[in-house]
Specification:
Layout: E1 2-6, H1 18-32, E2 36-42, H2 45-50, E3 55-65, E4 68-78, E5 84-88, H3 91-94, E6 101-102, E7 105-106, H4 110-127, E8 134-138, H5 139-142, H6 145-152, E9 157-162, E10 170-172, E11 192-193, E12 196-198, H7 199-206, E13 209-212, H8 215-220, H9 231-236, E14 241-243, H10 270-285, E15 296-303, H11 309-321, E16 325-332, H12 334-346, E17 351-355, H13 359-368, E18 371-374, H14 384-390, E19 394-398, H15 401-406, E20 414-416, H16 421-434, H17 438-449, H18 459-470
Parallel strand pairs: 1-2, 1-8, 2-5, 8-9, 9-13, 13-14, 15-16, 15-18, 16-17, 18-19, 19-20
Antiparallel strand pairs: 3-4, 4-5, 6-7, 10-12, 11-12
Helix pairs in contact: 10-13, 11-12, 11-16, 14-17
């Protein structure tokens, strides 16, 4: 099949979270299985700077945006896995320091930016030979595409993957004029949502197929507590919704061959290998090497309310009191960043906080840590618990969404149900009490390392959906 992916992130070129990792791995696995696959991305400043082989293609699209005809030169290259990459240029929208906004908030013109991008993807699809059979859109930034295809009666099937329902692309109704769609698309059966425009809602109602990133999350978002106001829309499309647990790139995330580690290791050398990486990380971060004798906990996350950062802050006094170490890597809400940095200043021998995103450091933390904390309020899939198990790091997670689907309590990690500090502290204490029991702890590590979270197990489920859409099932 011929599939064009539309997404706003692609690891390692442009990333804020798991969306970029999925777009790096899923198209590559589909290509390896014989499909024709391409990814269309905005030409961000970061992408232009990091992908040296990207070249301007002999193609310039004309994109209508709110009555203006805007040019959109297309750049073309290949990802490290050989997937064709198209990058849509419009510097006034994409030549910026961040993808979606600054610490002060979202960019004021995000509606225009991603409506332009979605219209450009559809225009691109019409120029390609052979044309894609399916445009697979991802999250709100590309969720307008199903409406554009339907309104234009274009020869494509559309799939939409919801990676995180909490981010919906909600804008004032006045921004609808930018879409170029007939006015009846700003109605409850499409993009209208309580007097505003909701791009994700439109995609949910108008895409030919819907997927989300775990079976647990697919069930949860049909309910009011987890539906983020769109549970009704999702229930109307329940028959079109499939939950498929994300996979991971098992070549990129392989402790036995990872070039970013101080000392690669496999399951046979997990104890010694992780100790060597732990010592190297402590030295790199300026933490005392004596901390190698104590449990080292890790957080790699967006520092936002969804990820349970408030619970982690509540747990910090206990961790410090028990002599454990904590390493944090991430960025997000300024208040969380400031409070975590304050802890690092007050406890420099136990707490390290690195604000930002650093792929190299993320790998080294996974290899060095003993315990990974992921107490999410909600979690569509989560990838770091999968990376952690792959690297023999025991996850402590809330039993929700993809975390519940991937971590078995007492077998591959520790889980808790209620989103309370008391429950989180209880499960951390359990993990800390297991840690000195060398045989039990090693068994937990090995059980996690034996799990198969490769994309090769997930891709047949996508192929089935694509085949149904194209009538080749």
């Amino acid at each position: 099949m011929n599939i064009l992916f539309a997404a706003s992130e692609l690891t390692p070129y442009a990333k804020t979270g798991g969306l970029g990792d999925v777009l790096a791995a899923l198209p590559a696995e589909l290509r390896a299985r014989g499909h024709s696959v391409a990814v269309a991305l905005p030409l961000y400043r970061q992408l232009r700077a990091s992908l040296a082989e990207l070249r301007r293609a002999p193609l310039t699209l004309t994109v209508e945006l709110g009555g203006r005809a805007l040019s959109a030169p297309v750049w073309q290259g290949t990802t490290r896995d050989g997937v064709t990459l198209f990058a849509i240029e419009r510097d006034e929208f994409f030549d910026r320091g961040q993808l979606y906004g600054t610490a002060d908030g979202d960019y004021f013109d995000n509606a225009a930016r991603f409506i332009f991008y979605s219209r450009a993807v559809v225009a691109l699809a019409l120029t390609l030979e052979p044309r894609p059979q399916i445009i697979h859109a991802n999250d709100w930034q590309a969720a307008l595409i199903p409406a554009l295809v339907r309104a234009g009666r274009l020869p494509f099937k559309t799939a939409l993957t919801v990676h995180n329902l909490a981010y919906q692309g909600m804008f004032p109704a006045a921004e609808f004029a930018l879409t170029g769609l007939p006015g009846f698309y700003l109605k409850p059966h499409a993009l209208e949502y309580y007097g505003r425009m909701n791009l994700l809602k439109g995609g949910i109602l108008l895409a030919d197929a819907l997927t989300t990133v775990s079976a647990g999350y697919a069930r949860e978002i049909l309910t009011e507590p987890y539906g983020c106001g769109l549970d009704g829309a999702l229930r109307t499309r329940g028959g079109a919704l499939t939950g498929i647990l994300n996979g991971i790139d098992t070549e990129l995330w392989n402790p036995a061959t990872d070039p970013l580690l101080a000392a690669p290791y496999d399951a046979r050398r997990v104890t010694a290998g992780k100790r060597r990486n732990k010592l190297a990380l402590l030295e790199e971060l300026g933490l005392p090497l004596t901390l190698a004798e104590r449990p080292l906990l890790a957080v790699i996350s967006r520092l936002v309310e969804q990820k349970g950062i408030a619970l982690i802050l509540r747990a910090l006094p206990l961790l410090v009191e028990r002599g454990a170490g904590l390493v944090v890597l991430g960025a997000g809400e300024a208040a969380y960043e400031a409070e975590l940095r304050d802890w690092a200043r007050r406890c420099p021998r136990q707490v390290s906080v690195s604000v930002g995103f650093d792929e190299r450091l993320a790998h080294r933390i996974e290899a060095a840590a003993d315990i990974f904390l992921m107490p999410s309020r909600f979690e569509p899939c989560g990838l770091n618990q999968l990376y952690s198990m792959r690297y023999g790091t025991v996850p402590v997670v809330r039993k929700v969404g993809g975390l519940a689907d991937s971590v078995a309590d007492g077998e591959t990690g520790f889980t808790f149900s209620d989103y309370t500090a008391e429950e989180f502290l209880r499960v951390i204490v359990s993990a800390l009490e297991w840690y000195p029991k060398a045989k039990k702890w090693k068994a937990l590590r090995l059980a996690g390392m034996r799990q198969d979270f490769s994309w090769s197990r997930r891709v047949p489920e996508y192929e089935k959906i694509y085949a149904q859409l194209t009538g080749t099932a």
